């Protein structure tokens, strides 16, 4: 990867965690908090997801029983469900959708003394836990500032943790490329809604043009990011598939490590979804299920207003190709949503987004991992998608990069812009470093 990109690529391999994903950081911290601060006698979670697996593992390590509510008969069984049972969790099938399973979990918590429901979208404990990833990166890079960090983004809890960790290490201007797939671009749409509110306030108080929508103007211009509103904040194409049938695809909306009232049933769920992004799409689900979400962490949006964040979405085909390539080149299985971030490197897009990289630049890719993957799914991607996949990276409605011949180098003229490319130029050259823990590949 480093040879292809012409700079140092560092992979933060969260798939090496005990539960095969980064979720153990935030969820594990929440489970400790539930035990220490709330004297939890039983920990409850919803869905056969990476977060639920982290709950089951953490509960076993803490010596507390865990109950995981999942949709029942007629639903596709996740690869993760047997792993929940292996961790000793009680897996309870209730309802046909995640909302119905969530309602059953709320009722269970309400009627069970000492039961605590772990929900992870925007809990402070989860963000603090996720921030530890940056403390490790700083140690592994010997405190030398990276040129850019690339990460997948789902509900935004990881993104909030990354920005928090960057600020803890005084890396206030390290840009983040937040990668989604075209069918899971909830974060981009949340930024759009947030920026439109800003524009209305701006128009009411000032007649000032050029206000940036992704980051503050000060943070943007210091990194060379255009202060002009990028095309990434436009709404999705009408023909884009929806993430499922309108139900939440990765656990319940909202987040709190506390007892839930049974009055907070399905009719009340929407009041806790701060930013919804699944309205108005078609019914075909994405394969990047770990990025599907019904809400965006408010803290992620808040921090994205003061830190340079560039939202990018890629096609399912590009993410699937990156997933296959990672297996071929590194003999590691990761979920396709995690691989979406790797596609920015693998397809040579990094130089279109951050133009001034050189052989001294350090790029950190958060490889979030994920346990919901097996060889059968890899084979299904091989049959479903072209290989190599055409490059179609976009933000909302605008396709701003496309390369028909994916074998061309990133600097070739095969990139056609139909919108304004988003560029982030790190302000200084970095020295090459070595690390015993993470070595540029």
TrEMBL record:
Q: Which residue windows does the record flag with biased composition (Polar residues)? A: 206-226, 256-270
What are the GO BP annotations of this UniProt entry? Answer: isoleucine biosynthetic process; L-serine catabolic process; L-threonine catabolic process
Domain named Tryptophan synthase beta chain-like PALP is located at: 1-201
Read off the PROSITE patterns from this record: DEHYDRATASE_SER_THR (PS00165)
- Native organism is Coemansia erecta
Q: What class of enzyme is it?
A: lyase
Q: Which reaction does it catalyse?
A: L-serine = pyruvate + NH4(+)
Reported EC number(s) for this entry are 4.3.1.17
- Gene for this protein? CHA1
State a single Gene Ontology molecular function. pyridoxal phosphate binding
Q: What ranges does the record give for the region Disordered, renumbered to this chain?
A: 194-278, 411-441
Bias (Basic and acidic residues): 194-205
The alphabetized UniProt keywords are:
Lyase, Pyridoxal phosphate
Q: Family assignment?
A: Belongs to the serine/threonine dehydratase family.
Lineage in the entry? Eukaryota, Fungi, Fungi incertae sedis, Zoopagomycota, Kickxellomycotina
Protein's name according to its UniProt entry: L-serine ammonia-lyase
Query: What Pfam families does this protein's entry cite?
Result: PALP
Obligatory cofactor(s): pyridoxal 5'-phosphate
């Amino acid at each position: 990867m480093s040879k292809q990109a012409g700079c140092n690529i560092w992979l933060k391999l969260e798939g090496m965690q005990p539960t095969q994903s980064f979720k153990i950081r935030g969820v594990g911290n929440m489970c400790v908090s539930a035990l220490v601060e709330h004297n939890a006698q039983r920990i409850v979670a919803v869905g056969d997801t990476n977060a639920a697996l982290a709950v089951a593992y953490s509960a076993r390590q803490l010596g507390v029983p865990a109950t995981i509510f999942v949709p029942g008969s007629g639903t596709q069984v996740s690869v993760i469900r047997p792993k929940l049972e292996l961790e000793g969790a009680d897996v309870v099938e209730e309802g046909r959708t995640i909302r119905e399973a969530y309602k059953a979990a709320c009722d269970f918590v309400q009627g069970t003394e000492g039961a605590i429901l772990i929900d992870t979208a925007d809990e402070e404990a989860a963000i603090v836990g996720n921030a530890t990833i940056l403390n490790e990166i700083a140690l592994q890079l010997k405190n030398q500032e990276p040129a850019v960090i690339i990460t997948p983004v789902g509900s935004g809890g990881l993104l909030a943790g990354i920005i928090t960790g960057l600020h803890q290490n005084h890396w206030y201007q390290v840009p983040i490329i937040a990668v989604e797939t075209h069918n899971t671009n909830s974060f981009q749409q949340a930024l759009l809604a947030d920026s439109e509110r800003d524009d209305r306030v701006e128009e009411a108080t000032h007649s000032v043009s050029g206000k940036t929508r992704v980051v503050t103007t000060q943070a943007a211009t210091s990194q060379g990011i255009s202060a002009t509103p990028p095309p990434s904040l436009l709404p999705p194409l009408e023909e884009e598939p929806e993430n499922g049938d309108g139900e939440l695809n990765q656990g319940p909306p909202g987040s709190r490590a506390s007892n839930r009232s049974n009055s907070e049933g399905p009719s009340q769920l929407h009041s806790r979804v701060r930013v919804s992004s699944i309205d108005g799409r078609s019914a075909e689900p994405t394969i990047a299920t770990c990025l599907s979400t019904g809400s965006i962490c408010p803290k992620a949006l808040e921090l994205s207003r003061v830190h340079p964040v560039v939202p990018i979405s890629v096609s399912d085909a590009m993410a699937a190709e990156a997933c296959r390539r990672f297996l071929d080149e590194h003999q590691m299985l990761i979920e396709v949503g995690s691989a979406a971030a790797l596609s920015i490197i693998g397809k040579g897009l990094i130089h279109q987004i951050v133009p001034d990289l050189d052989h001294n630049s350090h790029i950190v890719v958060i490889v979030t991992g994920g346990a919901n993957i097996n060889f059968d799914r890899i084979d299904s991607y091989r049959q479903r998608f072209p290989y190599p996949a055409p490059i179609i990276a976009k933000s909302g409605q605008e396709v701003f990069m496309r390369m028909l011949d994916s074998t061309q180098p990133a600097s070739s003229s095969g990139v056609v812009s139909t919108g304004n490319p988003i560029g982030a130029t790190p302000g200084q050259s970095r020295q090459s470093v070595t690390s015993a823990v993470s070595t540029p590949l």
